[in-house]
């Protein structure tokens, strides 16, 4: 697969996946749930990069931002370190919501915690508006804190999909770090380990697409190399 086609292939997969999910509708929720669980166990967060409807929505926002020539919003390392625990807080809140609000035992304990339909509508509009604005300015911003993505991340390192790196051939150009939508620094910083699969990785392959050196970065599936970086003689950096 030519490097310039990787992103196009991923967008096509997202489009097809969203169309299938919409076609199946709510009547197939159990099947979709089982497929989601199976894919997480086998492929980790590959679902996030190639199937998730919210991921597709964020891709559209990023494409629109680039079309309008609006620069991405950069967050300093210090701020990122402060925000890092946020995904665990959101995960705990999500699990608590499933247990207490989803099953609704809390209604009998604290009726004041239950929302009316009008309140929920306003609440959802505000949340969606804020998330949309953030994701427009920062690529895949929601994915960094998505509770389902965080859960999938637990099996990323034991899944059959792996991101590999030849640290001895790396020229430290930072191309992989600068293009990573999940801001994974280890893909650039790691020098010794060959398996650099990170729990936050959504397998978008942008690092492999951006790497200008032959076979420095690669993606393997079931132990077989599926994709690898190619030397770019025109690369300036």
Describe this protein with a few key phrases.
about 240 residues, Alpha-Beta Plaits, about 50% helix, about 5% strand, globular, iron, iron-sulfur cluster binding
Summarize the structure.
With 237 residues, this protein is mainly alpha-helical.
Tell me what the structure shows.
InterPro entries: 4Fe4S_Fe-S-bd, 4Fe4S_Fe_S_CS, NosR_regulator. The chain crosses the membrane at residues 7-24, 30-57, 88-109, 121-137. Keywords: Cell membrane, Iron, Iron-sulfur, Membrane, Metal-binding, Transmembrane, Transmembrane helix. The protein has a domain at 157-228: Alpha-Beta Plaits (2-Layer Sandwich). 52% of the residues lie in helices and 6% in strands. It contains twelve helices and three strands. It has a three-stranded antiparallel β-sheet with strand order 1-2-3.
Could you outline the blueprint of secondary structure elements for this entry?
Layout lengths: L5 H19 L4 H15 L2 H5 L2 H15 L9 H7 L2 H17 L3 H4 L7 H21 L9 H7 L7 E5 L9 H5 L6 H4 L16 H5 L6 E5 L2 E5 L9
Antiparallel strand pairs: 1-2, 2-3
Keywords: Cell membrane, Iron, Iron-sulfur, Membrane, Metal-binding, Transmembrane, Transmembrane helix
GO cellular component, one term: plasma membrane
Protein name: 4Fe-4S ferredoxin, iron-sulfur binding protein
Please give the count of helices.
12
Helix content: 40-55%
Radius of gyration: 19 Å
Give the CATH class of the domain at 157-228. Answer: Alpha Beta
Order of helices and strands: HHHHHHHHHEHHHEE
Quote the distance from N terminus to C terminus: 23 Å
Overall 3D form: globular
- Quick one: biggest sheet? 3 strands, antiparallel
Structural class designation? mainly alpha
- Please indicate the percent range of residues in DSSP E strands (runs of 2 or more): 5-15%
In total, the number of strands is 3
Could you list the spans in which at least 5 consecutive residues all have pLDDT below 50?
Answer: 103-113
Strand order of the largest sheet: 1-2-3
Label the CATH architecture of the domain at 157-228. Answer: 2-Layer Sandwich
CATH topology of the domain at 157-228: Alpha-Beta Plaits
InterPro entries: 4Fe4S_Fe-S-bd, 4Fe4S_Fe_S_CS, NosR_regulator
Transmembrane segments: 7-24, 30-57, 88-109, 121-137
Domain 4Fe-4S ferredoxin-type: 161-190, 192-222
GO molecular function, one term: iron-sulfur cluster binding
């Amino acid at each position: 697969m030519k490097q310039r086609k990787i992103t196009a292939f991923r967008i096509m997969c997202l489009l097809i996946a969203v169309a299938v999910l919409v076609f199946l509708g709510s009547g197939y929720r159990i099947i979709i749930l089982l497929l989601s669980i199976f894919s997480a166990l086998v492929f980790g967060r590959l679902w996030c990069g190639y199937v998730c409807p919210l991921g597709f929505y964020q891709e559209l926002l990023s494409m629109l931002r680039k079309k309008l020539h609006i620069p991405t919003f950069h967050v300093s390392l210090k701020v990122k370190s402060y925000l890092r625990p946020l995904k665990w807080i959101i995960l705990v809140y999500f699990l608590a919501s499933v247990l207490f609000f989803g099953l609704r035992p809390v209604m009998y304990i604290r009726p004041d915690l239950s929302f009316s339909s009008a309140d929920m509508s306003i609440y959802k509009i505000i949340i969606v508006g804020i998330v949309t604005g953030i994701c427009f300015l920062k690529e895949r911003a929601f994915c960094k804190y998505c509770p389902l993505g965080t859960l999938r991340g637990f099996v990323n390192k034991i899944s059959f999909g792996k991101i590999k790196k030849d640290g001895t051939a790396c020229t430290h150009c930072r191309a992989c770090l600068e293009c990573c939508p999940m801001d994974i620094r280890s893909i650039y910083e790691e020098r010794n380990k060959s398996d650099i699969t990170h729990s936050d990785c959504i397998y978008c392959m942008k690092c492999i697409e951006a790497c200008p050196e032959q076979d420095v970065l690669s993606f393997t599936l079931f132990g077989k190399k599926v994709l690898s970086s190619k030397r770019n003689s025109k690369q300036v950096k």
